């Protein structure tokens, strides 16, 4: 299977400022929740101070309460240590609750932002991007950031506070032992940064591989993919291809988890050995005539030093995790930074009453507006479709028929000229007006994995049952739905595969009828119907078209003979125009297409 990568170029300022800018951007995601994070910070600081107090209580127990047999003081100090553990645990639960809630809200914001950005992309983006790649960005990439987003901020604040408070307390106990304890800390920081950079590179490759595997699953395990694979005898080949993708992911997962593992293990060993070093240093100092360190002070210091071990290692690991997560954030930001070419004006025009007058004025269209090396798909199109009239567009495959129809609802934007609705450029209309004005029934029918009624009500969520039934009757599909065991509650299946092509097409027509738009675009809407069903649906379409503007993209010319105007496209230009009779009398391209259709129908 061929892979298609997204052609995306980062904004110049992103390239210039690099990682610092990205970190600032990540931090900005937490800005709406700064009050909650401030509360987390207070809880963390309080918990750290309480934790640091415990070794001092221990020192008093060993140096004062026990040697002097002061039972009351011993009890009080012991209760203080217990209270410290209780308070620390309660604060820990509260900060976890708040930080997890904030993290999940940030992830929700990211998912929603990416989904919203993708909803605003033009059709061209989705024709160039694999569905599995899009799903992977939303599911795997954002999901992979969960641990970082939900716990990193709290962990960072908690560990920084703990390390700072612990070092201050260690200095207060004995500054000389503190220096011995911290000698290797800069080396540990340098090692963790190297490990982080290494894991970031691997994480980028891993997420791309996960996206590729998700795309393979989406394509090959869909209903259409299964049918194609089995009928072509490629099931074993597809399984082998998936196994290769999975094998590559296994290798990357192992490398990701093992990257720098030995170096981090060395840090853990050294940190765990530090108490022995402290005891040894204190003993040597005493033998050399240095200052005497009390047992309580030494035990308290080692306790603090051991307490320093956990947050220090956690900080180093957090740094590694942040480096790894930067790769995931970068992939998400790539989607958020994708240029949106279908946008709404700052002050769009809203039409309360829509007549349905459509005009194409000098329309030109290229899929890449900046690329003038190739001939445009549409060039110099001038058409007028008065409100309530019908226009049929015919021509050979690749003439630009469907592209022309896509310009009215702004699935694409013109690259030259303009398309107007009731005299207003469609690019100046607000999205709601355009959605209310134009209904589209395309050649490729899409149905959700939901009931028939839910699929129809997608066009009009508040539609009554009678309105749904009326739309289905108009599309000649009500009797078939009513004959099903579950009627309108029948689940259509993945992409509607429980229905035939003609039945799906009629459901799509019923869905558009229910919306009742003043402008109706039929992009070869009857192409999947047999002759008998086509005639029935065409009667319904003709009746509905009486009071609305209809733009029909036709493959079968028998469906457009009654159109008020027929246009023949050839090479993206208008080659002929007129009524059916006028074009037959002209004996040009249209007449040739009619003769071809007649011969095909005769053979059938």
From TrEMBL:
Chain ranges passing through the membrane: 37-59, 71-98, 167-191, 264-282
Name of the protein described by the UniProt record: ABC transporter ATP-binding protein/permease
Superkingdom of source: Bacteria
Gene3D superfamilies, sorted: ABC transporter type 1, transmembrane domain (1.20.1560.10), P-loop containing nucleotide triphosphate hydrolases (3.40.50.300)
Record domain ABC transmembrane type-1: where: 38-324
Compartment annotation: Cell membrane
Keywords for this protein: ATP-binding, Membrane, Nucleotide-binding, Transmembrane, Transmembrane helix
Listed SMART domains: AAA
Domain ABC transporter: 358-596
GO MF annotations in UniProt: ATP binding
Lineage: Bacteria, Bacillati, Actinomycetota, Actinomycetes, Kitasatosporales
Membrane topology listed for this record: Multi-pass membrane protein
